[in-house]
Amino acid sequence: MRPKEIMLNTQPSNNMHVEVDDFGDDHVASSYETPLRADAFEMDDDLKMELIAKHFEEIMQILGLDLSDDSLKGTPMRVAKMYVKEVFSGLNPANKPTVRLFENKYNYSEMLVERDITFYSHCEHHFVPIYGKAHVAYISSGKVIGLSKINRIVQYYAKRPQVQERLTVQIAEELKKALNTEDVGVVIDANHMCVSSRGVGDTNSKTGTAHFSGKFSEEGTKTEFLNYINANVQL
Ligand SMILES: [Zn+2]
Asked: What's the CA-to-centroid distance between 14 and ligand 1, angstroms?
């Protein structure tokens, strides 16, 4: 047994019978920082994948699936790879996009809006997808950011087990830091598979969240941003 494996207690824990579902279905977020353990990255990706595959195989076995079936035998490692290298890769700060700022040479002092940024995330209460659109705006404090970087910041925070409220604030806080301005607005419109494909089974509802700070908390600027998001702009 490798030393790190000792930490993973696979015995049923005492809180197995705690009523956890109510908490998850209410989508309560505890903090805007993702709750990560201090030793989160002491294990390397290869060991994480090996262990996740092993444990996912156990889940499949418990469900009664026959792992010798050709179609199923690769699933534990596929899931492990997908978790570590793709859908939860944003947990690791090593994957955080580096942001380069440029001088605002054109002295453009209006808001810049990037709307309809498609993202895929996962609800941290059920580990099923949340997907939707993020709309981001800022007013330059003298520096500007490459447009693709806004997209990358959204994707980085989306690739974590998330709650939508936290995703919204994390994107906003990162942009404030990167752009050295408080004048940032973020609106997210998303579908939660835990609401549509299970639980209440509502396939039509969408969840909206927003974070407005600096000038974006003023009515005029906020309205301009929201109008832009809602406008049917044909380019
Ligand atoms: Zn959920």
From this structure: 23
Q: Do 196 and 178 share a structural domain? A: yes
Mean per-residue pLDDT for 109-116? 92
Ligand 1 centroid – CA 155 distance (Å): 19
Q: Which of 2-6, 120-124, 154-158, 169-173 shows the lowest mean pLDDT across its residues?
A: 2-6
> Are residues 135 and 34 located together in one domain of the fold?
no
200 Cα: distance to centroid of ligand 1 (angstroms): 11
Domain boundary pick from 35, 66, 95: 95
118 and 71 co-located in one domain: no
The whole-number pLDDT of residue 100 equals: 86
Is 191 within a domain?
A: yes
Ligand 1 center–CA 26 separation, angstroms:
8
Q: Do 130 and 82 share a domain, yes or no?
A: no
- Helix pair 147-158, 164-179: axis angle to 10 deg: 140
pLDDT per residue as tens digits for the range 13-60: 554 454 555 445 555 555 689 999 999 999 999 999 999 999 999 999
Strands (DSSP E) contained in 23-142 are 101-103, 111-123, 129-139
Count of domains in the chain?
Answer: 2
What Cα–Cα distance (Å) separates residue 156 from each residue in 10, 66, 75, 78, 220? Answer: 29, 35, 25, 21, 30
Mean pLDDT of the 99-113 span? 85
Which residues are known to be catalytic?
123-126, 164, 192, 194
Distance CA 225, CA 235 (A): 18
| Domain shared by 130 and 225, yes or no | yes
- Please indicate, yes or no, whether residues 109 and 149 belong to a single structural domain of this protein: yes
